[in-house]
Write a structure and sequence with these properties.
With 457 residues, the chain is an alpha/beta fold. The protein is 30% helix and 10% strand. Helix 1 packs antiparallel against helix 6 (214-227), helix 6 runs antiparallel to helix 7 and helix 8 runs parallel beside helix 10 (342-367).
């Protein structure tokens, strides 16, 4: 029998009502910060015990189109570490960072596209599809962690950016590849948010004190259940997924009701530390970047999430750096593809330094926040990176990378680790990701093209 002629279709289904209900349900998980308890024992999973340390947070700050290699270097250790001009803003934090040289993703280095085959796999090491009809780039390590530990926080992961997601074609490939470094699955990017106000609402509410509570959840759940006998089989499958998401929200609310963090570690911040940003998208690049970094800090400090990524620019970026003194007349892409013109090289260095300045700002803010004798930075792992080394030459056999933070005491900082001459098997970026995921409590036998942890980390 045709589903449309079934007796169950006595009344029409309002898709508008269903979508409105879905919107409410999807917003609810963002509003309650809870711990996870074992159904068998009632004990907290992933929540600190008495006198335990704060959780470890992971953040990735990405900048596009690489660096001027001659200016990107470090040598020595600790307070005596010397760093190149491209890293100058990190000079006050040399003892808090690890400079990594020589890491790469093999699939990126051998891809035919000099850009779009080398950015979406930054955090996955996977092959990027060259078929316009088959968007595929590999699930990224931040989303692996979000799935494993995301239930311990209100927001599984923050995916942020400054420039909008683009859908045009470049080199015969979708610019979706150039707009996303975080992928929820092999075929689905985890779409980034570029509006600071929306990020704020995601973390603390709608900005007007309104909270979506259990009574609204009950209403939405009842409405959804009433639809089950009035939709076809394929729609019932979608509805089951929707109901499962509501049940997850229901569980979170129940856990929140009985978990008031009476013992163990408490977040050092319980209320927003900043005003809700304006609704509009910031038109000033420095203001926009600062807002996004402040929101990451607030999210970590409130323990709203423990995983965050932020793209300072898209690949093939059209960002104008005219706000920097001495940088005129060229977009970022033009400055990075400079043909070794001395004037444009000098401006390129300034953009490199500006990107590094954002990392230094994030590190400085987190280092200043105390979490019981140690800083928020001490309990974090921050990765600052790009998909290319030499942007002008599209060099992908190395990637510029630095780590900051001590991962709760598991990472020794103030070091330079050089993997360039240790053989390809020993310089895989995915080995680094395995090592970082270990410290976040996510242990995998392999990831991407790596089956071993990175030596020295």
């Amino acid at each position: 029998m045709n589903a449309a002629n079934s007796p169950s279709f006595k009344q029409p289904v309002s898709r508008r009502t269903f979508l409105r209900g879905t919107g409410i349900a999807l917003a609810l998980p963002w509003l309650e910060s809870v711990s996870v308890r074992s159904a068998e024992s009632g004990k907290k999973l992933g929540a600190p015990a008495v006198n335990d340390k704060p959780p470890v947070r992971f953040g990735c700050l990405y900048f596009s189109n690489g660096v001027e290699p001659v200016h990107w270097w470090a040598r020595g250790a600790g307070a005596d570490m010397e760093i190149g001009p491209g890293l100058e803003p990190m000079k006050p934090f040399r003892e808090d960072m690890v400079f990594l040289r020589g890491l790469y993703n093999q699939q990126a280095a051998t891809h035919r596209s000099p850009h779009l085959g080398r950015i979406p796999n930054l955090l996955s090491g996977a092959w990027v599809s060259t078929d316009q009809n088959d968007i595929r780039a590999g699930r990224t390590m931040d989303q692996v962690m979000a799935q494993e530990i995301g239930r311990q926080t209100a927001v599984p992961s923050l995916i942020l950016g400054i420039e909008p997601t683009e859908l045009r074609l470049e080199d015969g490939l979708s610019m979706l590849y150039g707009s996303c470094i975080s992928w929820a699955s092999d075929t689905k990017p985890a779409m980034k948010e570029i509006y600071p106000a929306r990020v704020f609402d995601l973390l603390v509410g709608d900005g007007n004190g309104r909270r979506l509570d259990r009574s609204i959840l009950d209403q939405v759940l009842g409405d959804a259940n009433s639809l089950k006998n009035r939709v076809g089989r394929s729609d019932r499958e979608k509805l089951d997924e929707y109901l499962e998401s509501i049940r997850d929200v229901e569980t979170r609310i129940e856990r929140a009701a009985r978990d008031e963090r009476l013992e163990g570690w408490h977040p050092s911040l319980t209320e927003p530390s900043m005003e809700r940003p304006a609704e509009r998208l910031p038109q000033n690049v420095p203001e926009h970047m600062k807002l996004m970094l402040d929101l990451i800090v607030m999210a970590f400090q409130m323990d709203k999430t423990r995983v965050a990524t932020c793209m300072l620019n898209n690949d093939l970026s059209q960002m104008n750096f005219g706000f920097l003194e001495g940088v005129q007349g060229s977009l970022h892409l033009d400055l990075t593809h400079n043909g070794r013109d001395p004037v444009r090289e000098a401006m390129y260095l300034k953009t490199n330094q500006y990107h590094t300045q954002q990392m230094a700002y994030l590190v400085g803010r987190m280092k200043a926040i105390d979490e019981g004798g140690q800083s928020l930075l001490d309990h974090s792992l921050l990765l600052f990176c790009s998909n290319l080394l030499d942007g002008d030459r599209h060099q992908a056999d190395q990637m510029p990378m630095i780590l900051a933070g001590r991962g709760g005491g598991s990472l020794t900082t103030g070091r330079v680790l050089d993997y360039l001459d240790q053989g390809d098997e020993n310089r895989r970026a995915c080995s680094l990701y395995l090592s970082l995921m270990d410290r976040m409590g996510v242990n995998l036998p392999s990831f991407g093209d790596a089956t071993s942890r990175l030596a020295g980390i």
